[in-house]
Write a structure and sequence with these properties.
about 500 residues, single chain, 18 strands, alpha/beta, binds alpha-D-glucopyranose, 6-stranded parallel sheet, binds adenosine-5'-diphosphate, 9-stranded mixed sheet
Length: about 500
């Protein structure tokens, strides 16, 4: 089966969060499951320079057709936008890179809208995906177009709206990684998209007077998935539905949740090149070396017995880390340590830095993005804190499990699907893998944190939970198998392949 995977991030080329991890791991897992997968990416600098063009059996550059789709004339381009063939490093998968320097060759965060043209930038990406879905590449037409998040939300809509000669177009799957980021643009941008006027309405892309790329994807895809079964249920309700729950309820028959996986080649304490000292379930004592290494690296006192709580996260409202900040003094009072790596919200960064200044040697905060330190924290921490307000899937709690850094999580979304709370019953049954709390405030987090301290005071019991946690497997092969089953359910086009 031929599948085009359209996304904006792909580790190791470009990653701002879990979307990049998924982009790096799911396409090769689909290939291993028997799919003929290609990837479509925008030509951000890191992508253009990271792909290889040295051995390209698969295609020559493809010019995007004008006339329908986004108003190319308005882009002021001297030539039509082109899809450049490329090969991805590592996986060796074939890719199409949307190479429009004036739109994508910009430094900084790929989603920053400094020039106010994000609507047209990502509309063009959707248009490119739709054209490929219609058979733009004469040698390779996908049966399934698999789109990810709002950046590719227009793809299924363009595909449906456009008639092109040739075989029937691809079926479409739209995967929501985070419903809270919707790709909202002012009404004035609608005219640039090349869509018929009637689509600026309740049954189209209009969302409270704006244009919503997320809504376009949800309205027009043949199947909608999200990245955990619990989040798939949560977004059908007003609390997590971000105003789109009505539409999602209407389409609930085609909504499902497929849990993300972990790339255990990259996230595995037994052979993690970013850890000075490897360890595993049967050599847990060596985790103490990783812990001492992390304490030295971050300027924490080298105290083997202190419960070391780690955070690796974007510091945004979603992640609920103000709850951790609120309990930071108490955590230190209980004899614990806190290691934070993150960036985002300025006031929260400042609050964590102030906590570190109050408790030198006990709280360490690094503001920034650092892949190696992220691995170091998984290796060195006893607990990984993920108290998110909502969490579509969450990867860091799954990384924590594999590294024996027991996750402490708010019981929502993918966190609820992956962590088994250390209740007395679950401990007795040998099922417990972490700590979970309900209710979203510091009062609700406190008892879970105290339970972590209590369990940690019993080293044998703690080690038993660590071993259970480290034995959990959330492999990409399983997720890929579920996507394949979904693709096959899409009717004769996909099923026949
Ligand atoms: P989200 O995608 O919502 O940010 P996930 O848990 O799915 O959350 O994925 C986050 C990914 O980004 C993980 O791979 C995590 O290690 C990484 N990450 C987050 N913040 C940082 C940071 N400051 N430095 C390095 N890696 C980070
Ligand atoms: C989003 C979500 C996160 C998920 C990731 C990858 O960034 O916030 O929960 O793990 O996408 O699917």
């Amino acid at each position: 089966m031929k599948v085009l995977y359209a996304c904006t991030e792909l580790y190791p080329l470009l990653k701002t969060g879990g979307l990049g991890d998924v982009g790096g791991a799911l396409p090769p897992a689909l290939r291993d499951a028997g799919c003929d997968v290609r990837v479509l990416l925008p030509g951000f600098p890191a992508i253009r320079t990271g792909v290889s063009r040295s051995r390209l059996p698969h295609a020559s550059p493809l010019a995007l057709p004008d006339g329908e789709g986004p108003r190319l004339a308005q882009l002021g381009l001297r030539q039509p936008p082109a899809l450049q063939p490329a090969i991805l490093p590592g996986s060796g998968l074939a890719a199409y890179v949307l190479d429009v320097r004036t739109l994508f060759d910009r430094p900084g965060n790929p989603y920053e809208d400094a020039q106010g043209d994000n609507a047209i930038r990502f509309a063009l990406l959707g248009w490119a995906a739709a054209c490929l879905g219609h058979g733009l590449d004469p040698h390779w037409q996908p049966q399934v177009l698999h789109c990810h998040d709002w950046h590719t939300g227009l793809a299924p809509l363009y595909l449906r709206q456009t008639a092109m000669p040739g075989p029937p177009p691809a079926s479409t799957v739209f995967t929501v990684h985070n419903l809270a980021y919707q790709g909202l643009f002012p009404r004035s941008s609608f005219g640039q998209l090349g869509l018929p006027d009637y689509l600026f309405g309740i049954d189209g892309v209009e969302f409270w007077g704006q244009v919503s790329f997320m809504k376009a994807g949800l309205q027009s895809a043949d199947r909608i998935t999200t990245v955990s079964p619990t989040y798939a249920r949560e977004i059908l309700g007003p609390e997590q539905g971000c105003g789109l729950d009505g539409l999602l309820r209407e389409r609930s028959a085609i909504v499902s949740g497929i849990l993300n996986g972990v790339d255990y080649q990259l996230w595995n304490p037994s052979h993690d090149a970013m850890l000075a000292h490897p360890y595993d379930c049967d050599s847990l004592q060596d985790k103490a070396l990783a812990k001492a290494g992390l304490q030295r690296r971050m300027g924490l006192e080298e105290r083997p017995q202190a419960l070391l709580c780690g955070v690796v996260s974007r510091l945004t409202e979603q992640k609920g880390l103000h709850l951790v900040e609120a309990l930071a003094d108490e955590l230190v009072g209980l004899g614990g340590q806190l290691a934070v790596l993150g960036n985002g919200d300025g006031p929260l960064e400042q609050a964590f830095l102030r906590a570190a200044a109050r408790h030198p040697g006990r709280i360490a905060v690094e503001v920034g993005y650092d892949e190696a330190l992220a691995h170091g924290i998984m290796g060195g921490a006893d607990v990984i804190m993920v108290p998110s307000r909502f969490e579509p899937c969450g990867l860091t709690q799954m990384y924590g499990l594999r590294y024996g850094a027991l996750p402490l999580v708010h019981r929502v979304g993918g966190l609820a699907d992956t962590v088994v709370d250390a209740t007395a019953e679950n401990l007795r049954a040998g099922r417990a893998t972490g700590f979970a709390f309900d209710g979203f405030d510091a009062q609700a987090l406190r008892p879970a944190l105290r339970r972590a301290f209590e369990l940690h005071a019993h080293p044998d019991a703690w080690a038993a939970v660590q071993r259970t946690a480290m034995r959990q497997r959330f492999g990409w092969a399983e997720a890929a198998g579920r996507y394949m089953a979904l693709f096959r359910s899409l009717g004769p086009q996909a099923a026949a392949a």
